Task: structure prediction
Amino acid sequence: MQSRLRVQGQAIQPMLVTFPFGLFVCAVIFDLADVAGGPVLLGEVGYWTAVAALVAAALTAVAGMVDLWDVPPDTTRRTAITFNLVNAGMAGLFLLSCLIRADAPHRGATAALLATELLALAVGGVGVRLGARLIRHFDTGRVEATHRPPPARLTQGGAPF
Result:
């Protein structure tokens, strides 16, 4: 299977998926520091990091839906659909957290919201595992370069000897 969305021969969606997941992890770290008694600014940064992750997740979901169009109807398609649904579930839990915090004066996290975000990261971990399975399945035709010829040795005049 070839992805419709590619950059220099590489599928875009597996590259994009790292951005929302990484931003969600950063948001949880900021919120954990906020709940642990850190400065109020950490809760605000955690909130806006989660918002940025939601935007990245939406873009990733669009790329995933475009790629899903070409997946053959077999167990691989079920895995791809499950992967997209799991990632949507993770994003949905973070969206819930962001919506609850949107009207707060400092947008800081509470222990309950932090627990929701940790649950969302656990769901995202399942998505990472499913994504790795899909990458292994679709990346079987790619051959890694294991041996490169040594560089030509040059003399002072620039010609190889």
Remarks:
- The longest strand covers residues 6-7.
- The chain has five helices and two strands.
- Helices lie at 12-16, 18-35, 40-68, 75-101, 111-138.
